[in-house]
Amino acid sequence: MPRYQLAQINVGRIKGPIDSPVMAEFVANLERINLLAEQSPGYVWRLQSEEGDATAIETPLGEGIIVNMSVWDDVAALSHYVYKTAHVEIMKRRKEWFERMSEAVTVLWWVPHGHRPTVNEAVERLAHLRAHGPGEHAFTFQRHFPAPSDQHEQDRMAVERL
Description:
This protein has helices at 24-38, 75-84, 87-92, 94-97, 119-132, 148-161, and strands at residues 4-13, 43-46, 65-72, 106-112.
């Protein structure tokens, strides 16, 4: 069993209240896309309220910001779900529902197997990425880092080759 799993959060500033007409198609697709995630290989967990999604969960990021947070086996599993399933259709339409943000909106990081990150923990990782760029503490799809146990193994093998 791997010692670490991949956590992710992505945030967005919605163009109107979640129950407004501008958000109606986004909301209408939530259940379908969340179910797709849950049925995807490598899916572990997602943040949700009693309503089954995370749209009503408050964050320290301010009013009008909604979050999506989940845990996956690894970067490959999450990447496949995000970019190779029907999820990509929703991503292509994000400008219909979300304001453009100048800062990073997605961050990835490793968590110990079985750990479920809090919103505050995720927001701290996002703030770290925004302030310092990608690194082992907080990274992106474009520049990701191996899980700590994987890095330790790579370092050990490199020392053995010396």
